[in-house]
Design goal:
Elements: E1 9-12, E2 19-25, E3 30-35, E4 40-45, E5 52-55, E6 62-67, E7 73-77, E8 80-85, E9 90-95, E10 104-111, E11 117-123, E12 131-136, E13 142-149, E14 152-157, E15 163-168, E16 173-179, E17 185-193, E18 200-206, E19 212-217, E20 221-225, E21 231-236, E22 241-248, E23 254-260, H1 267-270, E24 278-282
Antiparallel strand pairs: 1-24, 2-3, 3-4, 4-5, 6-7, 7-8, 8-9, 10-11, 11-12, 12-13, 14-15, 15-16, 16-17, 18-19, 19-20, 20-21, 22-23, 23-24
Length: 299
Amino acid sequence: MPTGNWEWQICAPTRDRLGESILWHPVEQALYWIDFYGPLVHRQRWGSDTVESWKIDQGGTIGSLVFADNGRLLLAVDHGLYLFDPGTGKTRFFADPKNGKMNLVYNDSKVDRDGRYWIGTYDLSEREPNAAFYRMGPDGMAEVADKGFVICNGPTFSPDNRKLYFSDTVGHRILSYDLDRSGVISGRRVFFTFANNDGMPDGLAVDRAGNVWCALYGGGKVVCIDARGTLRRSLYLPATFVTSLCFGGPELKALYVTTGWNSSTTEATKAYDVGGGVFMRPVDTPGLPEPIITPRTRT
């Protein structure tokens, strides 16, 4: 077991099979995240030990969530995007950028600082480079931004919204792109490459200084990489399957991390692998407020 600076606390002792897509709501002062296989949406308000949960019946999995207006969430359910209102428990179909392709399933998503929605997919067999990365406007109209991946993860954006970072999970690398004001990405390049024993890059977040933080699935850690692509810090967790991360708390100076577990976790390893919960630790550099999308119904 690697050694590390053990300042992690479990703030939500859920036993999610695959906790994912954690975000801090800047208005509600609350954490939201999902259990991919639940499929469940979780919420924990600042200062509370209570975790509220909603079962989502529109699909077998939830790939991710982002914040929408009027207290709603935009959920990437396995084969469609749905608006969900936690206040009423109601869902409404919104869009399907992949146009019914059943060999692809929705995965990580984020909203950029200009209000555009970015969503990746993964190949259902997890073998073929069929997955695509989509850009969608508030009207639900989408375009393929890049393609040729097995699993799309991340994404996240530089503080000035001029760079997009993306996890090519099976490729063990983070890619970066130039992002223009119209939402077009270009200049794809490798930002950072991981060794096989590091685990696979999953969720990403950027702090106020422009450092890129990455959750490493199977690696039991998160890492901090500066804007020049230099590894600055590795923080180990007592969980192997580290999936997603965000900055939260009133000053955005807490790092929150989701984790998971699977059936290969044995009784012998459970003593130190407590995956499935949400972990938190303080950081020196704060994050940035999460953007909110304002979906418009097409006529």
